[in-house]
Structures are given as C-alpha cells and as structure tokens.
Design brief:
By secondary structure, the protein is an all-alpha fold. The protein has 8 helices and no strands. The chain is globular, with a radius of gyration of 28 Å.
Length: 229
C-alpha cells in the first residue's frame, strides 16, 4: 500500500506531467506499448484494488493519480489510432494531405453514343393534369425519404449530447451501442458516483470508459460536460 501511495503522491507533485511521462513511456512508443503500460499500471494502482485497505484521503490520492493515467491512455491511444489511419498503405506512397483527391478518369466518353429516338408524330404529349399528378405522387415519397434520413440524425444528436443538470444529477443515459460493453460498465459506475455526489470518482470511471473505447464521441461529450461543472 505504501508503494502505490508514494506513486500517487509523486504524480500529485507533478501536475504538468505529459501523457508519456504518466505512462512511463518513451516518445517513440507504439500503440501496443501504450496499451501494455496502461494495463501494467492498472494491475498496480487501480483504486478498486485498494478500496478496503486505505483511508478515504489515501484513496482520493490514488484515484486522482489513476484518473490522470486513464486520461493519458485515452489521449495517446486515440492519437496513435488516428495516425495509423492516415498512414499510406504503401510505405513509398505519400500520406494524404487533405486536399482534393485526384479525379478518376470518366468512362462516360468511352460508352458508344446511342442515336436519339425520333419523336412519334402520333404519340400524345403529356398534359398538364398528368404532369401535376406525377409530381404530386413523387412528392410524398421524396419527403418520406428525407424524413427517414433526418430522423436518425436528429435522434443521434439528441441522445449523444449530455443534459445540463445539477452537480448531483446522474450522467445522461445513452444507447447501449454508443460505446463498447466494457466502457458501458465504467459509464454506469460513473452514473452511480454522480448520484452519490462523488464527482472525482465519476471522472475516474468516465476516463476509464474512454480508455476502453477511445472512439466514443458520446463518452467524450459526457466527460467534457462533467469537467465543465
């Protein structure tokens, strides 16, 4: 217990430590290195391992230090994943610069041109009533398609934005598919912590949820909301 307390208090004296320093990694660390370092520290300093053996003040120190470690893991792993996505498939090929992609050669000019069909002198032209009926029948289906597309977008935007409530209100409950199952477990613990009025523990569990699912924009929005309180 004394070892983990010394570790926690050492980082408390270094509030400006970088993510690499918190995880005790070199600047050249890979995603696998980051993951291994985080798991090693979790086996040593996770607050749940010391909950029954420490006083509330001691547990607070360990919780604060481990929250910084979890946040460092989320930041570094997210950054390395984004860099991996931007890396070219072939090492000799330059990475995309964010400009316009080169236009693909059009195949329209390669297709043989069909001679225009001659208008039939006996075919009746479209009347105004038939044209209006056709546009009226097309209107509802187009509107329905637009509504079907807009509906999920509106639903996602409303459920992914955390509500602004009092300090002791639970965190917003999002759909279960907004994060991985493991991250959802940490998120639920953060809700319980907020119900008890323990924002420090809620922050810890939210950061651990992000560490489990760094790609979840729902979790990052919830963390930003809680940190702003």
């Amino acid at each position: 217990m004394s070892e983990v307390l010394s570790w926690a208090r050492r980082w408390a004296r270094r509030p400006t430590a970088t993510e690499h320093e918190l995880l005790e990694l070199a600047r050249s660390a890979t995603l696998d290195d980051v993951r291994a370092a985080y798991h090693k520290l979790a086996r040593f300093a996770h607050p749940d391992l010391h909950r029954t053996a420490m006083t509330p003040a001691q547990l607070e120190d360990v919780t604060a230090a481990f929250a910084r470690v979890s946040n460092a893991y989320a930041v570094l792993s997210g950054k390395l994943r984004r860099e991996a996505k931007r890396a070219p498939a072939n090492p000799g090929e330059p990475a995309p610069s964010g400009g316009h992609a080169p236009a693909r050669p059009s195949t329209a000019t390669m297709a043989p041109k069909q001679p225009p069909a001659r208008p039939s002198s006996t075919a009746p032209g479209p009347t105004s009533s038939s044209t209006g009926a056709a546009s009226a029948s097309a209107g509802p289906s187009a509107a329905g398609a637009a509504g079907a597309l807009a509906g999920p977008v509106r639903a996602a935007s409303t459920t992914s934005s955390p509500s602004r409530t009092g300090a002791t209100a639970p965190l917003p409950i999002g759909p279960a598919n907004a994060m991985s199952p493991r991250a959802l477990g940490h998120y639920r613990r953060a809700e319980l912590a907020m119900l008890r009025g323990n924002s420090t523990e809620a922050l810890l569990h939210l950061r651990m949820a992000i560490a489990s699912d760094p790609q979840s924009s729902f979790l990052r929005a919830a963390l930003a909301e809680l940190e702003a309180r």
